[in-house]
Amino acid sequence: MPKYVAFLRAINVGGHTVKMGHLRGLFESLGFTSVATVIASGNVIFNSTSKRAPALEKKIEDHLQRALGYEVITSVRTTSELKTTAECRTIDDSQIESAGNVLYIGFLKGGPSDEAKQKLASLATEDDKFHFSSREMYWLRRKKFSDSKLSGPLLEKTLGMRTTLRNSATVKKIALLCS
Fold it and tell me: Which of 3.30.70.1280, 3.30.70.2390, 2.60.120.20, 3.30.1490.10 would CATH assign to domain 3-82?
């Protein structure tokens, strides 16, 4: 049975508190098996007989909207897709590992248009660099996240699509758990 990872937006941020046991139960009620949560920020590993990630995303989003009462943007990846994302080298490791730098990965519903990529590139600064790979956006942030003029909502507006961001260390941790 295929194993997937769902990256959920708006879980345990902005006043939306969800206990991980409750979240696991919501996934199990959809018929998913081997459900596990990783870090209390909306990362769920699960098995499903479905072979279509977009159908899973819609199913999860609809269910969570009904159960939690608010929109939960969901990006689903197979474990092999996640491994590829975690190992992606669009940015040199020395830049990522430099003190104070953090690589964030934005999980997108689909690949952004060339126009959207160009718009985002126009927001790049010495401290904010962007790269793309398939349905992921890689954002190298030099210095503190809170010091950036960029934010998730601004990135979404610029790209014209919803995203959920994760620190690359979190993505690597989840990928290792799926191995």
Answer: 3.30.70.1280
